[in-house]
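Sequence and structure are no longer studied apart. As an example, we show below a sequence and the tokens encoding its fold:
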Amino acid sequence: MAAREPPDRFRISAKELGQLAMRGFCERCFWIGRHYDLPFVGPFPGIFSSLDSYSKKIVHAAFDRHGTSPSWLAPLGRFTSYIPPPSPSKFYWDDDTSGLRLTGAPDGILVRDDGRKVIVDYKTARHTEAQDELRPIYEVQLNGYAAIAEVRGLGPVDRLALVYTEPVTDGHSSLYESAQTEEGFALGFRATIDEVPLNPSILPPLMRQARKIYDAPHPPAGAPGCEDCARFHELWTAAQGWG
């Protein structure tokens, strides 16, 4: 495992920062993950990223074609346009207090008729208890996006929301004529909106904590019962025997 070169400023995405808000957060795993390129950290399945991206394209196409958002976004307000989401290289906040560069890539920045913004994040998933367990990450992630938007002059941000797009796979939907296409079949989706409180005050303590962990000269103690720590210890022990 090769150690990473220290950056000029500690960069962290809003979603990564959200890990610190999770119950059972492990400082040791965070430290190791930020200092080393771990060989056993696999990528997120590409199909979900593709579907999340498609949700964004569907919403933007509705604006481009009809000048307004799809009806299923109506609970969040009346929208007249959208801002093309900036890339992380342009969407960031340099916080001098913590020395962090907080970055992000919001799925959607929607503009209401009063000029205020609503930031949304699309999740191709059912809104279940398992998703609720990840809510602390999402709350930090979206509030991070809101804080960055204000700094980058894309505010004011008025509301935040998770938009779950759930595949409709019941038996009846498979009988619809529209489900069959010449190339294969069409899968429908049902949208569920879960609003997230706008509370940027949760960010500074987590940013200071992240900086403190990162600056530690040695890995901190692991969280009790952390399975990733146990796996890393096994890998490290095996590596000592390879030499």
Notes: The two ends are 14 Å apart (CA to CA).
